[in-house]
Amino acid sequence: MIKKIFKEGALILALSISIVLLAILSLNILLYFSSNDKARSAYKNDVSSKNKVEISKNPTLIIPKLEIKAPIVFSTSNNEKQIDEDLRNGLSHRLGTANPGQKGNVFLVGHSSNYPWEKGDYNQVFAYLNKLETGDILYVDYENKRYTYKVSGKKIVSPSDVSIENPSDDFRLTLMTCYPPGTTLKRLAVISELQSAGN
After folding, report:
1. pLDDT by residue (tens digit) across 158-176?
2. pTM of the full predicted structure?
3. Which of 27, 49, 68, 172 has the most beta carbons within 10 angstroms of its beta carbon?
4. What is the 3-state secondary structure (H, E, C) of the chain?
């Protein structure tokens, strides 16, 4: 009798946990597909008013294909707490990687999704990053110059694979986010090569 009660209690507990996890996953999926965050609004407002995106005074990433215009926050630390704070305000530039226009690897991190209770205007900024393809154009505005990059490839790596942050001998831009959206199982990295720098 006690075993039966214990078994039923364990089953009810497991079922309750499953329902809560399913609700959280469903909410993340809903946010992913209804993503209309500040980055898209900024891009649309800029383009609709001027028919082109002006060079930003502050560091900014622009991805025309995804209609994204997002500020870049230059991290003062590589600890997780600081990066989370940076991601509330835009994209996080990994401390110790190249700056736009410098030889090396400019490494930017952004959310593809986040917990529904986490506040931030850029929680889904990279929700559609996987839609970028070889040849797509990206822009980085930095120190009153616009740097034009062309996507050269994508890769999916484990969260522990930090090789995508390594310095390079070329002028590279790497964008990274959790993948698939709504999870932290893997990381998606989109690699681009510098095409031009100018106003």
Report:
1. 999 999 999 999 999 999 9
2. 0.78
3. 68
4. CHHHHHHHHHHHHHHHHHHHHHHHHHHHHHHHHCCCCHHHHHHHHHHHHHCCCCCCCCCEEEEHHHCEEEEEEECCCCCHHHHHHHHHCCEEECCCCCCCCCCEEEEEECCCCCCCCCCCCCCCCCCCHHHCCCCCEEEEEECCEEEEEEEEEEEEECCCCCHHHCCCCCEEEEEEEEECCCCCCEEEEEEEEEEEEEC
